[in-house]
Design a protein that fits this description.
single chain, about 400 residues, alpha+beta, Butyryl-Coa Dehydrogenase, subunit A, domain 1, Butyryl-CoA Dehydrogenase, subunit A, domain 2, Butyryl-CoA Dehydrogenase, subunit A, domain 3, four-stranded mixed beta sheet, four-stranded antiparallel beta sheet, 12 helices, about 50% helix, acyl-CoA dehydrogenase activity
């Protein structure tokens, strides 16, 4: 699927990573945050935050295959949290706005986000509603020309730095699949949180360089014209947006996992035991070959899903399969490779232990493995549609 133009894009992204990100990773991991506004502005200046976004709103206007190529490239960042934060900006919180938002909204929110002037976050999950999106409790009550928002959101990547949130909230009605809307909610004014918005930082097992927040809303006003698309269709829009999030997550892991394998090959080639390198043991080098084969199979599945998406098909089943496989491979590859690093693998400051911590998230975030299995079963005709 990758042409010389795709490869050129990836080369440019890798050069950016080597220059602007890699030298600072250890510092950002220790601080448990990275300077999103600074890095995103530089990414925006290079055009990387709008690869497949409309040209009229600052994007490159390229097809979705180039976004997949971009995701592969940022998967090579040595800290998963930074790549994830970038992906929120490009593939998690903006696809619905780009596709269904009014021109006013896209000018007000999408254009500066693509430029890197704004940092965005996605507000879907809650303390009592993670993978079960239909159960979110946050409300947006109509009052004149405004919505008045009350509730809270959990696990919000970029939340501590975000300028606005793509918020899913209940806007009226009893049907949990038809009573929700997506809203562009400004979080800050003049660099400070707006009245009625408070946040708590969440400390995580991995993805340390990415800030994560719990966000609370107490009578927060937002104009109704900041709603994305039609009222009551937020659940549908978010389900579509999830597909690009899930495929982005799987794609980034392809590069990250391949890096873990290659780093393990290098380490075990140098490490000696009983008169030979660890890599000389057949069980080790055969295992590396098996893992690389599995990763390449995942890449092929991702490319197939992307091609369906570019042809205006429904990639839901394939994207769910890719995310499921990526999550399971993240556990298998990082655990297998960490074992071959021996005691060094159980220390904090090395690439394989960081990958072991960071990559575990994909089986949970953006829809747990069990949700992916349910979706796949629905498409197989095993479960009724409402069950998934």
């Amino acid at each position: 699927m990758l042409t010389p133009e795709h490869i050129a894009l990836q080369d440019s992204v890798r050069q950016f990573i080597a220059r602007e990100i890699t030298p600072h990773i250890d510092e950002w991991e220790a601080a448990e945050i990275f300077p999103a506004h600074d890095i995103f502005k530089k990414l925006g200046n290079a055009g990387f935050l709008g690869v497949n976004k409309p040209v009229e709103f600052g994007g490159m206007g390229l097809d979705y295959s180039y976004e997949i190529a971009f995701c592969e490239a940022i998967g090579g960042i040595g800290a998963g949290g930074v790549g994830m934060a970038i992906a929120v900006q490009t593939d998690m919180a903006t696809p619905a706005l780009a596709r269904f938002g009014s021109d006013e909204l896209r000018e007000r929110f999408l254009k500066p986000t693509v430029a890197g002037d704004y940092v965005v976050c996605l507000g879907v999950s809650e303390a009592g509603a993670g993978s079960d999106v239909a159960s979110v409790k946050t409300t947006a009550r109509k009052d004149g020309d405004d919505y008045v928002i009350n509730g809270s959101k959990m696990w919000i990547t970029n939340g501590l730095q975000a300028d606005w949130m793509c918020l899913l909230a209940n806007t009226g009605g009893e049907d949990p699949h038809r009573n929700k809307s997506l809203i562009c909610l400004p979080l800050r004014e003049n660099g400070k949180l707006r009245p009625g918005i408070t946040m708590n930082k969440i400390k995580k097992v991995g993805m340390w360089s990415s800030d994560t927040a719990q966000v609370f809303f107490d009578d927060v006003r937002v104009p109704q014209r900041y709603r994305i698309g039609e009222e009551g269709k937020g659940f549908i829009y978010q389900m579509k947006q999830f597909q690009e999030e899930r495929l982005s997550g799987a794609t980034r892991r392809v590069t990250a996992l391949m890096n873990v394998v290659h780093e393990t090959i290098d380490y075990t080639r140098q490490r000696k035991a009983f008169g030979q390198s660890i890599l000389d043991n057949q069980v080790v080098h055969f295992r590396m070959a098996e893992l690389k084969t599995e990763i390449e199979l995942l890449r092929s599945l991702i490319y197939r899903a992307a091609q369906v998406h570019m042809a205006d098909g429904d990639m839901t089943e394939l994207a769910s399969m890719a995310k499921l496989k990526a999550g399971r491979l993240c556990r298998e590859v990082t655990d297998s490779c960490l074992q071959y690093w021996g005691g060094m693998g159980f220390t904090w400051d090395n690439s394989v232990s960081r990958a072991w911590r960071d990559l575990r998230l994909i089986s949970i975030g953006g829809g747990a493995d069990e949700i992916m299995l349910t979706i796949i079963c629905k498409h197989m005709g095993i479960l009724p549609k409402r069950a998934a």
